[in-house]
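Render this sequence as a predicted structure.
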Amino acid sequence: MDVRTYLLDKKEDIKSIDVKERLVHIKENKNFIISVIGPRRAGKTFFLYYFIKNVRKLRDEDYLFVNFEDYIEIKNPLKLPLIHQEIYGKPPQYIFFDEVQALSKWEKVVYTLYEKRKYFIFVTGSSSKLLSKEIATQLRGRTIPIKIYPFSFKEIFKLKGIQQKKYYSSYEEAKIKSIVNEYIEKGVFPDIVLNNVLPRAFYREYLDLVIYRDIIERYGVKNRYVLEFFIKSIISSFSSQFSVNKVFNTLKSRGIKVAKKTLYNFQKILEDIQLAFFLRKITVLTNISLRKLELTTPKVYLVDNGLYRYTVGRRNPEKLLENAVFLELVKEGYEPNNNIFYWRSRQEDEVDFVIVENDSIKQLIQVTYELVNENFKREVSALQKASKVLECKKLTIVTWDQEDLIKINGNQIHVIPFWKWILKRFQREL
């Protein structure tokens, strides 16, 4: 296709696409390149469409958009702004390069355009070919990463017309709980929320793409069985501590030889492609050693609850709720092992999430599906012990449907349902 025709047709295509609101904020800057990154199928391209159509409301003459995986032959990509100027009589203010890894020597092209300091430049790349850290490296650190994940519950509530209010009728509350109950199990990838595909088929294809394109093809992994076993072990262990040694010993007991280093490499790869997060344990805030953090046994969380529900197949409301709380924190901007940790004592008292802001511990969050006599002492006692050790008084227990204020030994523990916890945080977006 002729480049001029492509540029014009692309604008018409974008106009016709229905885009949904994403609660991701950007302050573009001509001194930095915006790299839009995130896991596979999270909606990076559609986020660019949303930014163009709804955030900045750009006119055709304001921007240049190229998806380098489209069927188009571009002899000299550096001339794209000039071709745009020929069409519209003015250079573009914004340049969007989607799937930039498909462009030969893309980093030189992008950096050359960036050096002119004339454009707001946005790039996206496929996780099967280009990791976020590689974008930063290739562009000499002159990037601001914008992370796009599957929908947050705050975004789903806006999509479903749920508004933040002080009080809700029983009908409104029932609707909200129904939405949460549905997507906490089905998952929140855009294709799932927008009913574009059946969940079971989606997650089967998703894992196939992760295994083959993101890992086997990219990293040249030979032992597919070990890789699949490792991924299934990760998924089955979500919201729990995960031990590479345990997987190694299980494989060894089955007569399967594999180097422990290979399994640690698999763990790093899954973290890089953002299929899973490995949350480290914090003991004290001062003098945090990265080396010591790396040596702690991590808890593993998945990028989406549907990966567990539609691969393992079992229902586990407790773990699904904990994973959902973790993901909401991440989507709000908290970084694992920087702003989020977990705490565990030598006596195995555990607090699920320790929130760190501005070099101080701001909140301790415990997650339990239901606070009952059998687990009340364990959950509350762990919070109290962590509160004393970490010197933090803001204590929260997130449940499915319980609300209370527990006053005990000078501490106040706020017990709040998951849906109210989300709506309370929703206020920040209004």
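Summary. The mean pLDDT is 92. The domain at 3-147 is CATH 3.40.50.300 (Rossmann fold).
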